[in-house]
Write a structure and sequence with these properties.
The complex is a heterodimer of chains A (117) and B (173). Chain A contains six helices and no strands. The radius of gyration of chain A is 16 Å and the shape is globular. Chain A is mainly alpha-helical. Chain B has one domain. Chain B is 87% helix and 0% strand. Chain B is built from eight helices and no strands. In chain B, helix 2 packs across helix 3, helix 3 crosses helix 6 and helix 6 packs across helix 8. The chains are: A mainly alpha (117), B mainly alpha (173). At the A-B interface, helix 1, helix 2, helix 4, helix 5 and helix 6 of A face helix 2, helix 3, helix 5, helix 6 and helix 8 of B.
């Protein structure tokens, strides 16, 4: 069952982006930014948490899940260390993913040749 | 030009001249073609995005279910996106990711794979321009805005949470 909901919720989040690509002039970068910020906002107003419980990786894998991780991290950090947590919480919670993306991208750049321009 | 003038002469008495037809045709055809192409493609594109995006998320769920039995939840939550990021960076380098993304659109863009692809392709394509201001700066072309606005939103949320807590504590005392 968890696979089914991961498929449906993850797929639908992708369809929303596809509709934005088809019917608006938003660039891919703007859509990604919108997804992350939407993830933070939806988590803050308490909508995204239940979706993660329900759909698991269907909700955490899309970039809104990155926003969810930022918001959850900041919530935890503010509870632990007050106002300083507002600065540390978001990036602490997402540091692993960002470092992995940078490290693998760098490794890929070492191994592979770029497209001729 | 020659044909258009000829046509104009020949159709002088008709309600709409050939030249005007050409003009309207040129002006609106592009718009019309774009609109119909959008309508016919939007549906199939959405189906493709749904299937590919859903499949990536299902794969992520499968990884999660596999890892969770072997390690803590915290590490699992890190390892699942790390595997996806690794695969996205690898397939970007091999040139497979772009081929899939051409069909899947939002299906590969929205999952963490799209973020990883944006970073990896920026790194690969700009290394020839130097390690610092080429690869080093341009690796953040897409990642930078995402990290900036995501972090900004989280800081604002943190401040709101903090002041709500302060107000709550003040009210209680």
């Amino acid at each position: 069952m968890d696979y089914l909901w991961a498929f449906i919720v993850g797929g639908l989040l992708c369809v929303i982006a596809e509709l934005l690509i088809c019917y608006t002039k938003l660039t891919a970068a703007r859509i990604l930014v919108a997804y992350v910020v939407a993830g933070v906002v939806l988590t803050a107003i308490g909508l995204y948490g239940p979706l993660v419980e329900w759909a698991g990786c269907g909700a955490t894998t899309p970039l809104t899940g990155f926003g969810y991780a930022l918001a959850e991290g900041v919530k935890k950090a503010v509870a632990e260390r007050g106002i300083f947590g507002a600065l540390t919480g978001g990036l602490t919670a997402t540091s692993g993913g960002i470092a992995a993306a940078l490290a693998f991208a760098f490794a890929a750049a070492l191994v592979f040749k770029g497209k001729p321009k | 030009m020659f044909y258009i003038n000829e046509g104009n002469k020949a159709n002088n008495n008709s309600v709409i001249s050939f030249r005007q037809v050409i003009f309207i045709y040129k002006k609106d055809y592009k718009k019309y073609a774009e609109q119909t192409a959008q309508k016919s493609n939007a549906f199939t594109n959405c189906i493709k995005a749904f299937l590919v995006g859903g499949a990536i998320c299902t794969f992520a769920q499968w990884l999660y279910n596999m890892f969770i039995t072997r390690m803590s939840e915290e590490n699992t939550r890190l390892l699942v996106p790390t595997v996806l990021i690794f695969l996205a960076a690898l397939t970007t380098g091999l040139g497979w990711f772009d081929k899939l993304a051409k069909h899947a659109g939002g299906g590969t863009l929205v999952p963490i794979t799209g973020f990883a692809n944006a970073i990896a392709s920026a790194a690969i394509d700009n290394k020839n321009e130097g390690w610092v201001l080429g690869l080093g700066a341009k690796i953040f072309t897409v990642a930078g805005p995402v990290i900036l606005y995501g972090t900004l939103a989280s800081v604002i949320y943190g401040l709101i949470l903090y002041f709500i807590r302060l107000a709550g504590a003040g009210g209680a005392a």
